[in-house]
Design brief:
Elements: H1 2-32, H2 39-62, H3 66-90, H4 106-125, H5 136-160, H6 174-206, H7 209-222, H8 224-235, H9 239-253, H10 256-260, H11 268-271, H12 276-295, H13 307-325
């Protein structure tokens, strides 16, 4: 099993590095276009940071590891929120991460709740109906995402108004960032299938099962591009944009099962283990708590503890314990 662990770590490092390159390149492309965090930037950045989930999820479904895919998608949302709360707890900056200006991102959070709720209902219904190889739940997620995308775009436009406008750049400088984006995507597309296969073997060899292994370990790996961009935003003092990045990525992650349906004869949400419903419900609950933190504008800490972040952390840890117990 040692060889599997080494292979998993090496492949994970490759995916992490490529994901970071993707996120940074597409963010620069969005800035150089003169649109900033516009609709193009939002979709490009979200797709870049979610590409590991797409590739690992698609290839996991192809080898029959459906629970690995669903666990990865839902676990990634939980881990994104966990990282955000932990960074808030250890932050020594004045004021809350979930601050007054961050309330502009409540729409992105509500979108994530909406899409995750559709996934949760699909997991509970376990319906076998399909249309063009899509299940009712995945079709609902796609429709809801398209309908809310324009609303999220205006939300991002409002957030962008709170930041200094980026300097104009020459069009000729796009080349290296576009090349970096294509190169990073190619690396992930190459490493993704092997990472999914290795993760599946480790899930069986360790006895942890595909559900728990996908929810914690694979999700942790595929979430690292979002983590890196969040940490970078916090380092630059853009705490509100870090919050928006997490909620936007969580919403985009919910369309991964819809894409993965194309690699499965049946909708993967109808075949997934019922335990995933715990993770989905936890994502909804934790996102709702975080949204309350956005809208409640009192800025206080008990000693050095931020109450909202502490509660979010406890809820996520509790949910992971439940998933482990039901694996």
């Amino acid at each position: 099993m040692t060889g599997l662990v080494i292979e998993f770590v090496v492949l994970a490092a490759v995916v992490i590095a490529a994901g970071v390159v993707l996120a940074r390149c597409c963010d620069r492309i969005a800035e150089l276009s003169g649109l900033g965090r516009s609709l193009v930037g939002l979709v490009l950045l979200a797709s870049a940071t979610s590409l590991p989930e797409f590739t690992v999820g698609w290839n996991a479904v192809r080898i029959g590891a459906i629970d690995l895919t669903v666990g990865d998608v839902l676990g990634s949302s939980l881990i994104n929120l966990l990282i955000l709360s932990v960074l808030d707890l250890v932050s020594r900056q004045r004021g809350q991460m979930l601050s007054k200006m961050a309330a502009a991102h409540a729409l992105s959070a509500t979108t994530a709740i909406l899409l995750t709720t559709i996934v949760l209902i699909s997991l509970l219904l376990e319906t076998k109906l399909t249309l063009w190889r899509f299940g009712p739940g995945t079709l609902g997620v796609l429709a809801a995402y398209v309908l809310t995308l324009r609303l999220v775009y205006f939300d991002q436009q409002f957030a962008m108004q709170q930041e200094p406008k980026p300097e104009e750049a020459e069009t000729g400088k796009w080349g290296k960032y576009l090349l970096g984006f294509v190169g990073g995507a190619g690396v992930i597309l190459f490493a993704g299938p092997r990472l999914a296969h290795t993760a599946d073997q480790l899930a069986v060899a360790t006895g942890l099962g595909r559900t728990f292994f996908g929810t914690v370990f694979v999700a942790g790996i595929t979430s690292l591009p979002e983590v890196v961009t969040t940490i970078e935003a916090l380092r630059l003092g853009a705490r509100d944009m870090a919050v928006g990045n997490v909620f936007g990525s969580n919403a985009f992650n919910m369309i991964v099962p819809a894409v993965a349906d194309l690699a499965s004869p049946e909708s993967i949400l109808s075949l997934a283990a019922p335990t995933h419903a715990i993770t989905a419900a936890a994502v909804i609950l934790v996102t709702a708590v975080a949204t309350l933190g956005l809208l409640y504008r009192a800025e206080k800490r008990f000693w050095f503890i931020e109450p909202d972040a502490a509660l979010v952390t406890l809820l996520i840890v509790g949910a992971l314990v439940l998933v482990y117990a039901r694996r």
